[in-house]
């Protein structure tokens, strides 16, 4: 039994690959395009009979591109399914990542960066997914990672 797997190192390497691939995809975004990384939980749907989740969202990070800038967006409690509502500690963690609320009238958070900061945007996306939404491995994201403009990315 000399084949010992270091699970922590394997998970860290997977998140490292996720960040590299996400940053590369951010660099390829054109104005008006976006990336979406969201939890694949398999149980929140649009049927109110199974707990009242309705059309509420699972946790996700969206990175939008527009002329010269990127926006990293995280939805807040007015959109998230009840099972995923942000706690005060979660909101504090979002702020530590540099995200701020859009306004007093919405619970969404955002970070605006220059388009040259793709690596920073990817690090923020990974940190939010891991530290705020407790995703333990990128395999637990829809499509095993992220989609480009709502379409699964091509490998």
User: How are strands sequenced across the largest beta sheet?
Assistant: 4-5-3-2-1-6-7
Q: Outline the low-pLDDT stretches.
A: 44-54
Largest sheet: 7 strands, antiparallel
| Structural class category | alpha+beta
> Under the CATH scheme, which class?
Alpha Beta
Mean pLDDT across the residues is 86
Number of helices: 3
> Considering DSSP H and I runs of 4 or more, what fraction of the residues is helical?
25-40%
Strand percentage: 15-25%
How far apart are the first and last residues' alpha carbons, in Å?
A: 34 Å
The tally of structural domains comes to 1
Compact description:
With 155 residues, the protein is of the alpha+beta class. Helix content is 30%, strand content 19%.
Question: Explain this structure to me?
Answer:
- With 155 residues, the chain is α+β, with helices and mostly antiparallel strands.
- It has one domain: Yope Regulator, Chain: A, CATH 3.30.1460.
- Helices cover 30% and strands 19% of the residues.
- It is built from 3 helices and 7 strands.
- It has helices at residues 7-28, 88-96, 118-132, and strands spanning 34-38, 60-66, 69-74, 100-101, 109-114, 147-148, 151-152.
- Strands 4-5-3-2-1-6-7 form a 7-stranded antiparallel β-sheet, covered by helices on one side.
- Strand 6 and strand 7 form a beta hairpin.
- Helix 1 (7-28) crosses helix 3.
- The longest helix is centred in the first third of the chain and has 22 residues, at 7-28.
- It is globular.
- The N and C termini lie far apart (34 Å).
- The model is unreliable at 44-54 (pLDDT under 50).
